[in-house]
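F.,

This is the one I mentioned.
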């Protein structure tokens, strides 16, 4: 079976969402300061593989810290008034999970693992907890939520090689009725909380917990049941059979990976989140040039007819 590279020219189109959002918000720059953002941090996957000894879930209670990976991103923010802001960003991350890290007997014996590069973009609305008199408050909390889109491509290591899992159809895609190959992209709902504090006259740092609720259960290539291996071999080949069931035959629970046996939970979609730090470079008006009255109005240059500088 031939494997085609998943990320080609389409990867360039991924960031059009972010670019469009930036283009739209740039026309509103007169409403407030403009900031450029550079972000780095850790990524954490919440899916069907690995997890705690209890019943699996897709929230932080099922997190394996051993699967922590990395992320990086670029973005921009438009501050609109003293509390609201629009932020658009693009990011790259890698996520992974491994049944080796769980003490749950069934999942540990299942012995599946994966990793995936993710390329995403999103736009969010932020609400900043700062008073009307502190348009340029040195430190404050904020929350955010919005929408986004990302591409992924689950892979694993097999016989010393990296193998893409989606083309293999490990859960009967390509031959089971109603089970088509899953898409390698999804919309997402980004949301979270952050803390912003001033470090330079023209820059801030933000510490952020940034969650991603997705609409796919296949970031880790596991969602439903084990399938008949004879059919899988005839349709998708020996590598698909080998990677659909990597459990150790020694000590296996009787019927563990028989056709129709549970391989993963289709009722919980996969999620991931970031713990990140960002540097925010202020491009708009400086603190000395803008002050706000108790009613929220802005005065420029202490009575002088100054305007925003860019």
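My design for it:
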């Amino acid at each position: 079976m031939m494997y085609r590279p998943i990320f080609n020219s389409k990867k360039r189109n991924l960031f059009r969402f972010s670019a469009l959002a930036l283009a739209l918000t740039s026309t509103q720059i007169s409403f407030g300061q403009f900031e450029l953002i550079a972000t780095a941090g850790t990524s954490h996957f919440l899916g069907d593989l690995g997890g705690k000894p209890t019943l699996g879930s897709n929230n932080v209670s099922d997190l394996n810290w051993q699967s922590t990976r990395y992320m990086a991103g670029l973005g921009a923010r438009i501050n609109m008034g003293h509390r609201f802001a629009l932020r658009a960003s693009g990011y790259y991350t890698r996520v992974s999970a491994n049944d080796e890290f769980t003490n749950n007997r069934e999942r540990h014996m299942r012995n599946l693992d994966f990793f995936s590069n993710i390329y995403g973009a999103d736009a969010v609305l932020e609400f900043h907890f700062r008073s009307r008199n502190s348009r340029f408050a040195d430190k404050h909390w904020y929350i955010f939520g919005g929408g986004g889109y990302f591409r992924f491509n689950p892979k694993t290591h097999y016989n010393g090689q990296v193998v893409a899992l989606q083309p293999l159809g490990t859960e009967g895609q390509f031959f089971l009725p109603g089970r088509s190959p899953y898409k390698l992209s999804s919309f997402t709902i980004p949301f979270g909380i952050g803390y912003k504090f001033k470090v330079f006259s023209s820059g801030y740092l933000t510490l952020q917990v940034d969650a991603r609720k997705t609409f796919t259960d296949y970031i880790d290539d596991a969602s439903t049941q084990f399938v008949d291996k004879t059919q899988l071999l005839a349709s998708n080949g020996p590598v698909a059979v080998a990677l659909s069931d990597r459990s150790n035959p020694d000590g296996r629970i009787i019927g563990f990976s028989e056709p129709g046996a549970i391989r993963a939970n289709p009722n919980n979609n996969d999620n991931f989140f970031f713990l990140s730090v960002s540097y925010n470079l202020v491009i708009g008006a400086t603190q000395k040039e803008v002050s706000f009255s108790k009613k929220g109005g802005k005065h420029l240059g202490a009575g002088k007819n100054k305007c925003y500088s860019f």
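Confidence is low (pLDDT under 50) at residues 1-7, 24-31, 287-310.

Talk soon.
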